[in-house]
Design a protein that fits this description.
The complex is a heterodimer. By secondary structure, chain A is an all-beta fold. Helices cover about 0% and strands about 60% of the residues of chain A. In chain A, strands 2, 4, 5, 9, 10 and 11 form a 6-stranded mixed beta sheet that branches. Chain A has a 5-stranded antiparallel beta sheet with strand order 1-3-8-7-6, with no helix packed on it. In chain A, a hairpin with a 2-residue loop joins strand 9 (about 85-95) and strand 10. The mean pLDDT of chain A is about 90. By secondary structure, chain B is an all-beta fold. In chain B, about 0% of the residues lie in helices and about 55% in strands. Chain B has strands spanning about 5, 10-15, 20-25, 30-40, 40-50, 55, 65-70, 75-80, 85-95, 110, 115. In chain B, the strands form 2 sheets. In chain B, strands 2, 4, 5, 6, 9, 10 and 11 form a 7-stranded mixed beta sheet that branches. A 4-stranded antiparallel beta sheet of chain B has the order 1-3-8-7, with no helix packed on it. The chains are: A mainly beta, B mainly beta.
Chain lengths: ~110, ~120
Amino acid sequence: SQKIEQNSEALNIQEGKTATLTCNYTNYSPAYLQWYRQDPGRGPVFLLLIRENEKEKRKERLKVTFDTTLKQSLFHITASQPADSATYLCARASGNTPLVFGKGTRLSVIA
Amino acid sequence: DAGITQSPRHKVTETGTPVTLRCHQTENHRYMYWYRQDPGHGLRLIHYSYGVKDTDKGEVSDGYSVSRSKTEDFLLTLESATSSQTSVYFCAARPGTGVLGVTNEKLFFGSGTQLSVL
């Protein structure tokens, strides 16, 4: 079956460091991956989308990379802040098929 | 939340009772989705709609039905609620205007409905 896996359930880092979250996919080429942020008690909010033929995408302090050899996407937050604490979700996107989400990684940035 | 409203925000009900959750959007999005989110499982698709009266099942559709009689409203019904349906339910929508589908369209989510079935 097609899977999106976020191996780390939780990640704690010090303020100012770079947070790196991992999204792995199996059994298919996802073509596109989307990343969302979810705060407690709220719905997910879209952050970034990366296509399979893009190696890297940036938005302010966020960077997403896509490695088709490793079947992996890395999501980086540079100069992390306590306000970055949230759950981050990756999702596979393909045509009009509904998004398939990973279970998410809960990031805690400690001041 | 881009004009997506879920109601109610919280509901407590008893096993065996019918429950209807409502999702209302103001952006004329074509596609609408119902997901449930549970610890250890993440977001799982229940049903989705690709137009008025056009719906399809998702990964965890058993025990749920949906209806979409108008573009702006997508209803999720639990015909006879069970304790395993205790969850947070999220509605989402996207325009459906892109030629590449969801690959280059983001989803807009509502704030969720916390449902407890006792």
